[in-house]
């Protein structure tokens, strides 16, 4: 160690006759003079030194303590906590049956029914189902209504308004904001007041992570090395073969692909259809107004650093939602789209660069509400809760 200088407050020559200055530590003399070089300090802790000035007239002793503090460390962030996690791919299902696959394809379809959103296609160890119901200003459109996760013998159903059903029993996450709720078989729930996250521990430290906005958007994150199937595609980093159908072969259209993953054992659902053209939803003037409004909301500076998000997909979705309307007029469609963009951008995701998966996130994107005319999370929450079944109603099975 280069040591540290500790100086006695008297200068040589102060006092008559001139005093002799000596330094002691633990009763042992360690130096002379008004300046002491202390070497070999401990990494953390304190040491006490005595300085004694004396002449023939008097003797004065004073003590000084050298305190060694540990090096300051930065406060841990969410990003720090997640960098050690196994990388995951992200699929998004939102709004009017808009799907962004694990491998980056974006497509839409019309269908009010149950569909396999994603599943482990190699071991069948987990499944995620989506139920879509009619929404908007007519019965011609459908939106996400329910997310069901099945793994390790546990079934978790999450409905609009963040109503959670675990094996026929309600879990009231809306009353337990920012509280981790542990369930059986490695499941954990966490509701931050705006999004509900369902974590499922898988083998070898991997996780399945589902994030639901309580209304019409879900982010499904599964391990990058898991072969998947369903609406979210096959998760092989090749967008060309995303549309693999349930019974084999690659579908030639989004409608045929989605239809192959529909679950309708009793034949009650209408066939999966093409989405309506924008000209059926908006006049020319309304369309231009929607484009201008969405462009200002999506292309904000806070969303510039979002490498795993294709903003053009969000912009086109925003225009369609604004033209067609979504679940409730109390929450403008634009707000739901920007909320989903903010979530995907501000939470950790992994960017594949030359077969290396790099965790990225942009925490600034979380503060989107003040920049657009949308309700705060606290104001939006009761409106979203009202879109689902009553939280306190007793269920009978």
Task: Describe the structure in your own words.
The protein is an alpha+beta fold. The protein is built from 7 helices and 24 strands. It has helices at residues 78-82, 254-260, 278-281, 284-298, 311-324, 333-346, 377-385; strands spanning 4-7, 20-25, 28-32, 35-38, 45-54, 59-68, 88-94, 98-100, 106-108, 114-120, 126-135, 141-151, 154-159, 163-166, 169-171, 180-182, 187-191, 196-201, 207-212, 217-223, 228-229, 262-263, 349-353, 356-360. A hairpin with a 4-residue loop joins strand 17 and strand 18 (196-201). Helix 4 crosses helix 5 (311-324) and helix 5 (311-324) packs antiparallel against helix 6. The longest helix is centred in the last third of the chain and has 15 residues, at 284-298.
Secondary-structure topology with pairs:
Layout: E1 4-7, E2 20-25, E3 28-32, E4 35-38, E5 45-54, E6 59-68, H1 78-82, E7 88-94, E8 98-100, E9 106-108, E10 114-120, E11 126-135, E12 141-151, E13 154-159, E14 163-166, E15 169-171, E16 180-182, E17 187-191, E18 196-201, E19 207-212, E20 217-223, E21 228-229, H2 254-260, E22 262-263, H3 278-281, H4 284-298, H5 311-324, H6 333-346, E23 349-353, E24 356-360, H7 377-385
Strand order of the largest sheet: 9-8-7-20-19-18-17-16
Helix content: 10-25%
Shape descriptor? elongated
Unreliable residue stretches:
none
**Number of separate helices:** 7
What about the largest sheet? Answer: 8 strands, antiparallel
Number of strands: 24
- In what range is the share of β-strand residues? 25-35%
Rounded mean pLDDT is 86
Distance between the termini: 73 Å
Structural class of the helices, strands and pairings? alpha+beta
Radius of gyration: 31 Å
